[in-house]
Every structure is written in C-alpha cells, then in structure tokens.
Amino acid sequence: MLRSLLARLTRRDPGQLELSFDRGQGLEARLRAAGLRGTSRVTLTRNRSVYVSWKADVLRVHEAFVEAPDEVIQAIVGFVQGRGIARRLARKVILEYPVPRGTTPARRQDAIHPDDRAACERLTREHARLNAERFAGALKPLKVRVSRRMRTRLGHYALAASHGTAEIVISRRHLRRHGWDEVLDTLLHEMVHQWQEESGLPVDHRAAFRAKARAVGAVARAKRAIGA
Questions:
Q1: Domains and CATH numbers, the chain
Q2: What is the pLDDT of residues 159-173, one digit of tens each?
Q3: Contact predicate 218/165, CB 8 Å
Q4: pTM of the entire structure?
C-alpha cells in the first residue's frame, strides 16, 4: 500500500480535490523557503492515493503536510527536484509521515512487538518524568511507541490536530544503535514539538523551538543520521 501512494507522479488524477485555503499559501511559503523552484503554484489536495504530484508548473501536496516538520518539507522539495538516491531517500521520509485517517486510506498502525513492550512502557514513564522535571507538568500525558518501520528518522511527534490523539514514536534502530541516553534526548526533542502544538505554535525547528529546546535541555538539531 505504501509503495502505491506516490506511484502517479507525472499525470493529474481527475479524482483529486483542490483546496483553496490560506493554509496552502503557508505551505507554499515553507516549500519555497526550503528551495522549491520551477513551479508557479502550490495547491492542497485530499487525494486518496497520491501524496505529492505535479503537472507542468503546478505542484499538488496532500493537505496533511501543512503541519509537517521542516525535514519533511525539505524531503518534498528533494523529491520533486532531486534525482537518484536523493529522490529515493526523500520518498522514504514522505511515506513515513503519518497522514490522518479519514482523508486517505487508513494506514495500518504497527502493532507493538512483544519484545518492544518494556521499552514502550519505559519511554512512557520517561515522558511523564521529563514532563514533570522540564515542563513543570504542563504537557498532556501520552503514550510513547517504538516503531520497527521507522528507518530514516530517530523519532516523530504526531500532531493531535491531525491524528485526533497525539503520539510520540521512537525508532527501534535508534534505541538499539545509540542507547538510552541518546533516545531520551530524542524523546525530549519530540516533547518540545508537543509543547509547540499545545502552545498553539507552529511545529517546526525555528527560533521558538530552539529557544524552548535550550530551556529544557533538549537537543536542538533537527535530525541525526539513523546509521551514525
């Protein structure tokens, strides 16, 4: 199913619905700031089978990506304008971004592997501890999940506004390769994104994120290579 989501990239799907929201202008501004060129217009869609498509000089992007973090926005630009390995890596990042149910075919959420249950429980406890110690208990409690499918990112914060329930997901590869100290740094990084959403701020890695990350002792960098 995931492989089919970006299958039709060069022709227009007659079933797609173009949306003319101010949010589309905001997404276009973010894409252009990330280096998008060669397009005259960016529109939002609710296409049920394609996340990103373009025809002539019009780029169409699924509306779920309006609130995507900076690295996903950069991946869209890299996918549209890149070639070879760069495009394949960008495609992976796009496909791993959780799209809310009800707008596209539901993505099957990974069941928690029995071997990962203890790690999930510990991460959820650590979330509660860090919330009390670094955020004065201001964040909403949530469960933290370990993903065996997350291959290019260390962690991810799924927005409550897009998914109904907020969630933090940590890569199992990250846990196995880098250990608990770095995983807790990643968890704290994602908790700053949670703070952004719950504070009504854009979820990104810009000035507000960096300031809050410094305040709570989080790693402010946006991404580390999963294989490093």
A1: 2-96 (3.30.2010), 114-216 (3.30.2010.10)
A2: 887 667 889 999 999
A3: no
A4: 0.58
